[in-house]
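Long-time lurker. I teach an intro course on protein structure, and each term I like to show students one example going from raw sequence to a predicted 3D structure in token notation. This year I'd like something fresh instead of my usual example. Would anyone be willing to generate the tokens for the chain below so I can use it in lecture? Attribution to the forum is fine with me.
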Amino acid sequence: MSDLREPLPCDDRKDGRCVRFGISAHQPWCLLCETKPAYRKAWEEGRGPGQGEFAGPTDKPLPTNGGPGTELHRLLKRLGIHETPDCPCMAHMNTMDSRGAEWCEEHIDTIIGWLKREAKRRKLPFVPVVAKLVVNLAIRRAKKKVHTAEVA
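-- Reply from a regular --
Happy to contribute to a lecture. Here you go:
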């Protein structure tokens, strides 16, 4: 029998962490992610085990040069919207940064869903068109930084 603390092979793992969902990548959670759609959906929504108020001290932002998650984080801060201890914001930022701009473009509805759920939780107004504009701006800024770094 395998050790349940050992991680399963997964493309989303880096240094013992699931970079997609910002949680520890140990076998029970990886197995749940792979076999139980309800758990995977909860993680995608930022409310799964190890996220938000249940997140441990290792849920810090991954080093980045300004990926789309970091750019969205900066834009939201400029709008006066800051992360709180019980929100999945940093896990979502890590997911967006680690997956990159193309993934964010392909999964923009998921990202907008994250923003909508958090706005509802905080009792903030939510306008989907504005959210999409802000997310697209974050993606463009991240792409520009990558392009600028490649040219330099």
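Some talking points for your students: Residues 68-151 form one domain. The beta strands are 13-14, 17-18, 23-24.
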